[in-house]
Amino acid sequence: MNYITLNNGVKMPQLGYGVYQVTKDECERCVADALTMGYRLIDTAQSYFNEEEVGAAIAKSGIPREEIFLTTKVWIEHYGYDACRASVLESMRKLQVDYLDLCLLHQPFGDAYGAYRALEDLYDEGKIRAIGISNFYTDRMIDIASFSRIKPQINQVEIHPHNQQIEGKTWHDKYGIQMEAWAPFGEGRGDMFDLPELKAIGAKYGKTVAQVILRWHLQRGIVIIPKSTHIERMEENFKVFDFELTEEDMTAIAALDKKQSSFFSHTDPNMVEWFVKMVEQRKKQHDSSKEKKNW
Ligand SMILES: NC(=O)c1ccc[n+]([C@@H]2O[C@H](COP(=O)([O-])OP(=O)(O)OC[C@H]3O[C@@H](n4cnc5c(N)ncnc54)[C@H](OP(=O)(O)O)[C@@H]3O)[C@@H](O)[C@H]2O)c1
Question: Could you tell me the pTM of the whole model?
Answer without folding.
Answer: 0.96
